[in-house]
Sequence to fold (201 residues):
Amino acid sequence: MDALTAILTRRSTRNFSDAPLPESLMQTVLQVGRQAPSGGNSQSNHFLVIQNQNVIEDLIRLTQQAFSRMETFEGMYPSLRHSIEASKRGGYRFCYNAPVLIVVANRRDYGNSLADCACALENMMIAANALDLGSCYINQLRWLNEDGELLKYLQALGLKENERVFGALALGRPATEDGLPRRQPNVITGNEVTYVYDRLK
Fold:
């Protein structure tokens, strides 16, 4: 698949099969993430690759507990509101049962942390599509990156004291009939474009 096709046909997968992910494919996705641009070529992203299902279940439990303690308010970001409300109902699984979760962290006080992690995550999502894998950008751990219990658990997994999570990637084979990602065209209803032709006088 050429690069433009991989970008234009990429869609988020929110239903994964339990099929194991070949190590070679995961390493390819990870390497593409590590090749992403970073501010000043700092290369300060830290990738925590989680394949152990017990660890993923622990993270699911901890995120549900943390969101359950939060309250919603008018004007709240809709996805964050959904995470809180779903956690209060119970059974909330933020990473859609993906067999692999790649957590991307960076220095807590570095001004380009979110941008650098986002670039890596986008690279990995495009690569996943090109490799016939499903992926989804996961924000929930970022929203909770100062939750004491969750932070302590992530530090036990290898997160450094001066780092915080700025995004994550759910990765695996889609639970579709043919095992391939859904690639239907995306209808663009926003993302306004303004062409500037002349200098201001």
User: Anything to note?
Assistant: Helices lie at 3-8, 23-34, 53-68, 78-89, 113-130, 140-143, 148-157. The mean pLDDT is 96.
